[in-house]
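Hi R.,

Here are the chain sequences for the assembly we discussed:
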Amino acid sequence: MKLTEEEQAMLAGKYGQGTQTAMKIQVAIGEAFDAPYMVPITRAHVALSNQEADLWFVEKLVSQGAHCRIRPTVNPSFNWKQMKKITSIDAKDEAIVKRTDAAYKKIGAIMTYDCTPYLQLNVPRVNEVLAYSESSATPFVNSVYGARSNRESAQSALCAAITGVTPYYGFLKEENRQGEILVNVQAEMKTDFDYQLLGYVTPKKIGYKIPVFNNLVNPSNAALMNLGAQLNTGGNVPMYHIVGVTPEAETITAAFQGHEVKETVTITQADLDEMRSDLTAPYGKIEFALFGCPHLTLDQIKIVADLVENQHLKVPLFIMSSAPTQQLCQDMGYLQTIEAAGGEIISNTCMDQPCWKFLYGKKGVTDSPKCAYYTKRRNMEFVITELENAVKAALKGEIYDENHEKSVSMSQNI
Amino acid sequence: MKIMKKAFQCHKISEGEASGEIMISKDPICFYLVDPKSGVVIERNHCLFGKSIAGKVLVFPNGKGSSVVQADGMYQLKMKGMAPKAMIVDYPDTTLVASAIIMEMPLVDKTDSSFKTGIQNGNIVHVDATHGTITVNSES
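And here is the predicted structure of the full complex:
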């Protein structure tokens, strides 16, 4: 790789050992992808997790004196102060959260603890070069804003934040951002949940190509967030286009950068229905509801608040969101409504954290396939359905398949 | 029967060298959905479900999973001594690449086209990522 004088100085250790380690790793990544040189970044987001690898790596860099040139925002860990009111927290888990917090502060991160930085505290402009990790964030900044980021890992994003540069390859290059397959969506797409299913089923149909979605009208922020998060979980696709919606896809021709459309697939309602039944645990009694993977938006929380107003939840309901959204929910009265019904809004927390041990071995309901995907490791089971249905299930403590009920009532009518 | 050695070219992603038994996965791998204590794949519907990848030279199309879990999955396997010895992929992504480099696990791509057709589960191979070669021992 061709490095500038300053980058060479970083590599030689003239800016300290921590910066040297970060640059060494980035050069190895650059060489793996045949990047010709580095380019400066203007923003970074690190998928902090306080998992063992995360803590090990950040503490190693801190001990070597590393400091971020570009202050990154960070992903959630868990809010031990708030979770302690709900459950008992292992001393070792609390200690690891505090250690991670201290290390990231020391390295110069901004402790936003939010997996949706692209909606609030780290919002890029078109064509800005970024180093974003977090599976819902990279597709959002690439696709919705037209900014440029590779699908960084937590560690490579942290290295970029330290050196202020990233290897020039992949999605930073114009030609690698062109659509590769036209996806005609022939489904109603009535709710944000339909975008979860679309995001999950698309890689199964097309592999890891950049999809250009056609026929999607006015998707909400939550829909776009869901689509990207699931595309990047079901597959490794950190970029999509939506004709007439995203900035690099004003027309189909623009999305394919003037190239001929070589491949087209159709995704139907039947595909989404099949995906839904593949993903969900069997319907029946549920013991809790968990939302916020990715963190719920204010609009989504309002849906929950409206449904539970003056009602009593049969099972505990937990919403994970950002601290600014939680504050706004309090100012708007949504928080009080949800708490009065027996629910909670928890800030700065991820579902894939040890603070949820009290739910292990239980069956819950959620609106997020991503949430259910990672919790398999923690022996949690989820019925996956629309946010509205999931909240109604939490009010009743059970959920039954509407289609099944319909067929039962129809047969009774006969 | 005699042991034949056959060498293939490849491209270094993460340096190092190791020998081990080939294990082929047609499905992408998420290291977080592998039990760190045993190296056994716990992902339902995965072609390696119930099998251990510990100590193997893992041949797979690509990684999958979020930007966090791949590194942590790999780290935990490594700490428990249950990681694969080397990895051979078709489509490297940043998360897999960065994780392998940081965890110092040999990883290569761009193998000769004849490599995939010339190997099967259980073959003993030597992967020298640093010099971009894979040597396969096969019985004939």
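Chain B has one domain: 3-139. The mean pLDDT of chain B is 92.

Let me know if anything looks off.

Best,
T.
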